[in-house]
Batch of 3 targets.
Target 1
Amino acid sequence: MFQFDRHFTPDEANRTLDQVRPLVEQLMELRDQIVALRPELESGLQKALGNGGSKATGDLMLLMVQVRALIDQVQMHGALVKDIDQGLLDFPALREDREVFLCWKLGESTVSFWHELDGGFAGRRPL
């Protein structure tokens, strides 16, 4: 009947922020480290084509493993990571007997918006 097994009330989503906000902050830090590696990765790709390698490639792999682990931790709390660049999370919820997402972005103090499942960030509306 419903796509998600768990549905949050706004209060439950806000309480969950205490656990997931630090994880999202760590995700953003890892994203910044990945972006900083980009110039080295581009030269590393050229070396790889010539059968060389680069330290940046190994660093990227380690960072990606850490990113995956943090996303898994956030999802264990029931939230969905929607955009690492923005620090955007969705929490499955029910509104008028249909599934929607409660939407939160890093920097916002509380979960104060919602959108349809297919509405995305651009379709956010205040609670």
Note: The beta strands are 80-83, 88-95, 98-105, 113-116, 125-126.
Target 2
Amino acid sequence: MLCQDCHTTIDSEEFGKELAPEARGLSYALLVETQVYATQYDKKEGYLLSTRGNPLGNVVRDGKKVTLHSATGLDFQIPLPKQLAKDNG
């Protein structure tokens, strides 16, 4: 997974370009390893996909926001670059 998957920077290949209207990628299914060995969270609208296309079982989209469930038990609301661009457009 690359940082740009969640956080666009001014050095990103996406910075300053028109954002695609379709979702970058969500999955409703987890990898078998995640199902067996990891904490499972409610998928809400879906699990975000990594750069390689693997569902991130601890990163869940819910409407206009994404929640990252950390290994320490904390939940972080992650701003979406696409939503920030729309809100500040």
Note: The helical segments are 32-37, 81-88.
Target 3
Amino acid sequence: MKVKFEGIDDFNRPIFKDIESNRRYGSVDFLFGYEASEKEILETITEEDLLYFGNHFGCEPMGTPPINTIKIIK
């Protein structure tokens, strides 16, 4: 599956959205302030850092391992 950076949620997690569905992925290991640039986030986060968070922005605080392989689209 392919994901694109969507933004920073209320937990300061970087959120990525699956380009073909409403599924959201992100990291609980790397947190960012709201002022963080997309470039900074994409230089820090790798596909291996991403967890499944659910179908809407700001859901599932801890995340679960993704079922499929993830590819970040920059």
Note: The beta strands are 2-8, 14-18, 24-26, 51-54, 71-72.
